[in-house]
Structure formats: structure tokens, C-alpha cells
């Protein structure tokens, strides 16, 4: 049997660091896993302010002690705004945040999740500004009496607070069911560690050790190597002992209608039993992993009047993968017998065909069942056929640890290895996609798919038949040599996207193919739209229609810059209070008031520095202090960058709009408004709550005459006895 490399576990699942980062990048672009921006209040060591950080794609690294993972989060175009002890605005700032925490398995409702839990012991966080930011910070920090190290530590401490209160944890896997039962193909427990490969090829990986039953072993600390071969992203490794002893042995015993105790572990018959079909005696049956296949040895004895025979039979079971199917084939048996009878005659006469088919079917069950059930998706029992050379279509297998599933590439028995490709557990959603063709000029908004003849603020691309394609506003592009279908949003995000045009000569003129699916020459480019989304576009001109432009695009719904206004109102002065009672018994008080409003423009994913312009009640505001006229009277204000304070006169109502526009360092312009509606007379009422009426009930003795009255409801006999003789008598009484 091959050397057991699973460290005593029934299964090992390894995910490469490269694959982990591919998934992190996809999840980040989809707007999940880690926020694209963070607004952090700062109040440490007497320093008060706000940090506005815009993040780029996080990068995971496993070059650390076992179970630890580092997460490097770059930030750029960010801002640090300090309000005390001195007023400072420092921008644009960039650098990296490094977060180090332990990967652990968290129990939740019968499942296990591999996660970075930031509240199970504080993560180690460091923050370092880049050289350009340090130059910006140096003079301001010297004036404030702060050092660069103090500032970095202060912001790192704030990041820890945000991780523990806002993010709390990052899940690296979906919930993986665990079951305490006797089924060898369901997970009993799962442990996790990391492997820091210090060799030149640096094959770092996350490793999951899986036990299929409570009597299984495993030492997760013993996993110190990555077994993922070159060119693969992950590996599922099955223990030879588990495969033979826990899966094949009981299934073959059941097929032969024998107790499992007839077989020693991992898989060896320990007594003589009747051969299938009642012909002869099966004296030996053993299976073991040998090289890249399973070897099966059996011996059958038969005798009759005046004769006896012994036949030793050996065959191999091969497991192959190709074209999305798993194929189980048995080699031609090698038969050694002392009488001159063809091996296939013995095979048929002894009834071993069913046995071989059963063994092969059991191996199919071991592969298909254990992968599908073990990794969390259940199994369709009809996949087990028990026939030789039967192909089995293998759909995408849900891969418990990380990712949406695996696609099997190859299989190696030593231990049983399945070399896998990962199916992403998350994908970047599509915001818009479409096609358009025209001989004349047009513009297109890739975020909405709107085609126009003129340029608007939302326009991304402009087609000029005499010049080519050009961008509008902050839109940028990069031509790539990747085909349109192969270009991913992750690849687009890595492009500089700083180009402004594609000259006419770079857009090929081609003869359209007869079949639409055939490839032809075209220019393919990635683009960042005016709203900040990523898109891919391809363009070509048709020679049949005089150079008509054909444009195809897919725009991904990635996080985009946003602009909000935060508001807070308070009564800064109150006039004489008048109290009164309403007809509904409510007690009210009314008074003229002077309102104070505080407003802050809150940009998200905008590149600092940001230029703001405020408009209050139709009046453009100038920086500093001033007054404006409104339909309800005069308003005083104070404007400092993205913060605005306004005050009304005593008893003055306010009913108008407050708007702010912002243009960031990349030329992205956003605009938003809120409605201001504040009454000059503030009335507060308290509902009238009637006092509950309490009725006293006192029991007193009945008067003598009343005590002789008959009950209100009595039996029929008593009623007839007391009834008057006639109506007249009743009336007389």
C-alpha cells in the first residue's frame, strides 16, 4: 500500500494561495467580503477626527506560522481629517494595512465554517503610509506635535475597532455540514491549518483535515507540505486506509452477504467463504492501492469426485478522468490454474463476474459517493451501476472548503489524489450588456446601455466615423490582447484604464463570418465608466456595410462612487412657550424656535482631494461665513469644505433643497440633494390618558325578604307550581 500522506485523516483538501487570492479578488469586485471604502471616526490620545479610506483589492499571504493568514489591504486616494487638537485635512493619502489573524473552524447550527474571527482575540494590525503620503503628512504632523509612527499606530488601532465592531469576521468557506453517524461518507469533523512552503516554488496553501467518523484519527499539526501539483489549484486526497477499510470493505461484504468481520482492515478476507453462485470456495480476496491503481487478488478452490483445482486471479482497477467523466475499468484478469481451462471459463463457471462488477461498482461508489457526500452536496444513488467500463458523468462538485465547486482534471492513486480546478463561489454580477451598430456617429452610456446622438454627462464612449472611438469625462480605457470572452472583471481591474481614445486605424475592417460564433479580428478593451464600473468592449467594422461599426459590451456591477449628505438638527434658541389643550384632550406646548442644522457631504469611493460646491435654497454658497435670502427669510451659514452649518431666524420656517456637487481627483463628478423642512413654530403634544376608574365591590348580607326570593333560573316543575291559575289572576296580583 502507498504511503499514507493524509496525516491520519480520512481526507485532506488543499487550496492554493493563488486560488485563494483569485477568489478574494472576485469577491471584492462583486462588492462582498471586505468593504471597498471605510469611514472611521478617530478619538484616540486626544486626537479627534475622521479617516476616509478607499481600498484596493486585498491580498492574502500564508508566509506565516501554521493557521495564521495575512491580509494586505492597499488604500489610495484617501483622507485624514483631524478636528482636534488642531484642524488638519491631509490628502491624498495611500499605503497598506496588514491584518494577521488565525484561521479557525467556527461551529454554527450543525455546520463548520472556516473564518477569520476578529473578536476571538484581537487581530494584529499594522498600517504604513507610502512615501508620497509621508511627505504630505510630515509638516502637518510636526505642527500638531505628532510623529509618523504615532499617526500610523493611531489609525491601526482604529482599524482594529472597525474590524471587531463593523466587520466582525471574514468567512473563507460556506457552511460545511458535520454529522456524528456511522456513515463513512459524511463528515464527522474538520480541522484547518496553513502550509508555508519555503521552497523556491512557494506552494503555500490552506489545508483541511477531514474525519469521516469518531473513530478516525488525524493530526493537523503533521501537515507541513503542499501536495498540490504544478498547474493545479487544489487537491482532494483520500486516505488509502479509509478508502479500502471504511468504504470498500463494508460495501463488498454487503454485496457478498457476509459480515464485515470476515474482512480484516484495510481489505483482506480472513476466512474461507462460498464463492458467488455457490461454485467453489473463495479462499482469498484482498484489495490494495498499488501505484496509480487498485490491485485485487483472489483465490478460488473447487473440487469434485476425483478432481480438485485452485485458481489464483489478479486484476487491476483503473480510474481515469476525461471530458468531464469518470471512467472505471478493470484490466484483463491474470489467472494461474493447474488445469487446462481457459480463464474466462473459470470466471463464468465460478460466478465471479458479479463479484468483479461489485468490486468495481464499490470503487465507483467510493469515488462518487465520498466526493459528493463528503463535500456537502449529497449523492444520487443511481450513479452506482456496478458495471465494468461504465462512464459516469461528473457534474460540478460542491467543494466544502472554499469555492462553489471543483472540476476534476486527473486522478492519481497514491494516496487517492484528485487534481481539481475551482469553480468560483462568487462572481461579479452584470449591470448591463448589449450591442449596437451604426454607420453614423453615436454615443453610448455603458452603465445603462442608452444610445444617443449627442454627448451627455453619462456618456462613456463617443463614436466618430472619421476619427474613431473616444471617452468622455473620467472614463478611461486600455486595449488588451485578451479575447472578449476570456477577459474577466478581475483582469480589467488590473489594467491602468488611462487611455482616452482608439484611433480609427486600430479598429479592424473585416468580412463578417458566415457563422456568428466563428472568431474574427476585433479590438478588445477594458474600460472604467463615468460611474466607476468596470466593463469590457469589443469593436470592429464591417466591410460589407461600408465600415459600419459593430460595438458589443458587458458592464459589471462593481461598487461605484457615491455621495450622501448627513444631517443633524437641533433647536439652538426657543421663544416664549404657550401651553394649551386640544379637543382630543391632548396637552400641548408651542413656541417659536431658531433651528441650527449641521450637514456633512460624505463621499464614498471618491478619490481625494474632492472639490465641493454647495447650493442652499437656490443660492450657491461661498466658502466661509455668510447670509442668503430665502422665501421664508434670511439664513446664516458657515461653510468649510464638506461641512456646512446653517441657522434660521427666530420663528422662521424652512422649506427648500440643499444640494452638493463633488468632483474628485480623477474627475468623477457626483451630485445629490436633500429636502429641508423645518417649522418656525414647534408644537409638541402629549396625548391625554384618562385616569382608570376603580370600582369597589363589597359583599353584604341580603335582606330577610330578599333571601326568600326564588332563583332567576329554576327547574321546570318549580316554575309550573308557582305559576298563576290564569292570566286574569296574574293580572290581579
Describe the structure.
This protein has 733 residues and is α+β, with helices and mostly antiparallel strands. The protein folds into four domains: 18-171; 243-363 and 376-414, no CATH class; 430-556, no CATH class; 562-686, Sandwich (Immunoglobulin-like). It has nine helices and 46 strands. Strands 2, 3, 4, 5, 6, 7, 8, 9 and 10 form a nine-stranded antiparallel β-sheet that branches. Strands 16, 17, 18, 19, 20, 21 and 22 form a seven-stranded antiparallel β-sheet that branches. Strands 36, 37, 38, 41, 42, 43 and 46 form a seven-stranded antiparallel β-sheet that branches. Strand 2 and strand 3 (47-54) form a beta hairpin. Helix 4 (240-255) crosses helix 6. The model is unreliable at 338-400 and 705-733 (pLDDT under 50).
Task: Give a short synopsis of this structure.
The chain is of the alpha+beta class and 733 residues long. It is extended and about 120 Å long.
Classify the helix fraction into a percent range.
10-25%
Low-pLDDT ranges: 338-400, 705-733
Q: How many strand units?
A: 46
Q: Tell me, what's the shape? A: extended
Major beta sheet, specifics?
A: 9 strands, antiparallel
What percentage of the residues does DSSP assign to strands (E)? 35-45%
Mean pLDDT across residues = 78
Distance between the termini: 117 Å
Query: From the helix content, strand content and strand pairing, which structural class follows?
Result: alpha+beta
Q: Can you tell me the number of structural domains?
A: 4
Amino acid at each position: 500500500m502507498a504511503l499514507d500522506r493524509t496525516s491520519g485523516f480520512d481526507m485532506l483538501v488543499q487550496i492554493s494561495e493563488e486560488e485563494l487570492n483569485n477568489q478574494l479578488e472576485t469577491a471584492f469586485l462583486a462588492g462582498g467580503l471586505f468593504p471597498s471604502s471605510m469611514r472611521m471616526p478617530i478619538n484616540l490620545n486626544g486626537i479627534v477626527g475622521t479617516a476616509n479610506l478607499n481600498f484596493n483589492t486585498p491580498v492574502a499571504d500564508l508566509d506565516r506560522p501554521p493557521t495564521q493568514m495575512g491580509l494586505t489591504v492597499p488604500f489610495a486616494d484617501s483622507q485624514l481629517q483631524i478636528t482636534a487638537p488642531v484642524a488638519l485635512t491631509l490628502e491624498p493619502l495611500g499605503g497598506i494595512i496588514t491584518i494577521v489573524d488565525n484561521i479557525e473552524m467556527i461551529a454554527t447550527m450543525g455546520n463548520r465554517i472556516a473564518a477569520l474571527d476578529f473578536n476571538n482575540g484581537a487581530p494584529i494590525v499594522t498600517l504604513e503610509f507610502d512615501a508620497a503620503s509621508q511627505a504630505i503628512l510630515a509638516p502637518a504632523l510636526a505642527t500638531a506635535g505628532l510623529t509618523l509612527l504615532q499617526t500610523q499606530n493611531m489609525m491601526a488601532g482604529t482599524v482594529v475597532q472597525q474590524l471587531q465592531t463593523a466587520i466582525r469576521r471574514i468567512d473563507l468557506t460556506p457552511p460545511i455540514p458535520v454529522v456524528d453517524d456511522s456513515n463513512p461518507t459524511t463528515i464527522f469533523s474538520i480541522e484547518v491549518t496553513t502550509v508555508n512552503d519555503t521552497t523556491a516554488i512557494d506552494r503555500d496553501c490552506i489545508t483541511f483535515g477531514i474525519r469521516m467518523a469518531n473513530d478516525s484519527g488525524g493530526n493537523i499539526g503533521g501537515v507541513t507540505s503542499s501536495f498540490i501539483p504544478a498547474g493545479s489549484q487544489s487537491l482532494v486526497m483520500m486516505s488509502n486506509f479509509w478508502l479500502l477499510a471504511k468504504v470498500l470493505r463494508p460495501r463488498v461484504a454487503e454485496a457478498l452477504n457476509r459480515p464485515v468481520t470476515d474482512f480484516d482492515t484495510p481489505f483482506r478476507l480472513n476466512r474461507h467463504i462460498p464463492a458467488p453462485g455457490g461454485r467453489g470456495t473463495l479462499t482469498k480476496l484482498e484489495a490494495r492501492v498499488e501505484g496509480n491503481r487498485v490491485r485485487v487478488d483472489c483465490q478460488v478452490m473447487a473440487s469434485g469426485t476425483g478432481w480438485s483445482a485452485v485458481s489464483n486471479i489478479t486484476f487491476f482497477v483503473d480510474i481515469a478522468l476525461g471530458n468531464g467523466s469518470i471512467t472505471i475499468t478493470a484490466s484483463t484478469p491474470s489467472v494461474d490454474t493447474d488445469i487446462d481451462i481457459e480463464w474466462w471459463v473459470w470466471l463464468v463457471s465460478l460466478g465471479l463476474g458479479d463479484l468483479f462488477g461489485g468490486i468495481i461498482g464499490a470503487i465507483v461508489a467510493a469515488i462518487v459517493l465520498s466526493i459528493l457526500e463528503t463535500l456537502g452536496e449529497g449523492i444520487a444513488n443511481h450513479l452506482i451501476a456496478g458495471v465494468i467500463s461504465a462512464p459516469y458523468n461528473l457534474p460540478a462538485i460542491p467543494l466544502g472548503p472554499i469555492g462553489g465547486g471543483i472540476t476534476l482534471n486527473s486522478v492519481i492513486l497514491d494516496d487517492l489524489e484528485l487534481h481539481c480546478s475551482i469553480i468560483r463561489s462568487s462572481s461579479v454580477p452584470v449591470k448591463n450588456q448589449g450591442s449596437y451598430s451604426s454607420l453614423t456617429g453615436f454615443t453610448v452610456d455603458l452603465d445603462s446601455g442608452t444610445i444617443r446622438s449627442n454627448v451627455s454627462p453619462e456618456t462613456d464612449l463617443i463614436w466618430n466615423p472619421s476619427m474613431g472611438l473616444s471617452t468622455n469625462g473620467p472614463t478611461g480605457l486600455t486595449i488588451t490582447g485578451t479575447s472578449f470572452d476570456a477577459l474577466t472583471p478581475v483582469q480589467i481591474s488590473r489594467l491602468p484604464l488611462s487611455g482616452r481614445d482608439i484611433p480609427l486605424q486600430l479598429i479592424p475592417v473585416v468580412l463578417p463570418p458566415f457563422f456568428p460564433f466563428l472568431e474574427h479580428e476585433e479590438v478588445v478593451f477594458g474600460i472604467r465608466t463615468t460611474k466607476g464600473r468596470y466593463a469590457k468592449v469589443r469593436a470592429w467594422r464591417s466591410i460589407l456595410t461600408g465600415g459600419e461599426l459593430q460595438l458589443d459590451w458587458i458592464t459589471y456591477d462593481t461598487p461605484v462612487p457615491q455621495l450622501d449628505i448627513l444631517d443633524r438638527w437641533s433647536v439652538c434658541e426657543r421663544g416664549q412657550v404657550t401651553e394649551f389643550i386640544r379637543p382630543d384632550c391632548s396637552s400641548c406646548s408651542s413656541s417659536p424656535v431658531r433651528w441650527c442644522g449641521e450637514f456633512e457631504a460624505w463621499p464614498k469611493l471618491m478619490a481625494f482631494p474632492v472639490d465641493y460646491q454647495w447650493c442652499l435654497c437656490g443660492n450657491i454658497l461661498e466658502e466661509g461665513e455668510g447670509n442668503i435670502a430665502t422665501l421664508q427669510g434670511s439664513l446664516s451659514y458657515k461653510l468649510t469644505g464638506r461641512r456646512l452649518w446653517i441657522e434660521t431666524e427666530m420663528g422662521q420656517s424652512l422649506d427648500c433643497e440643499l444640494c452638493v456637487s463633488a468632483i474628485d481627483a480623477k474627475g468623477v463628478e457626483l451630485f445629490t440633494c436633500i429636502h429641508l423642512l423645518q417649522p418656525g413654530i414647534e408644537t409638541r403634544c402629549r396625548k391625554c390618558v384618562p385616569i382608570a376608574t376603580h370600582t369597589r365591590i363589597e359583599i353584604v348580607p341580603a335582606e330577610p325578604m330578599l333571601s326568600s326570593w326564588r332563583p332567576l333560573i329554576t327547574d321546570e316543575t318549580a316554575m309550573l307550581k308557582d305559576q298563576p291559575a290564569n292570566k286574569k289572576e296574574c293580572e290581579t296580583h
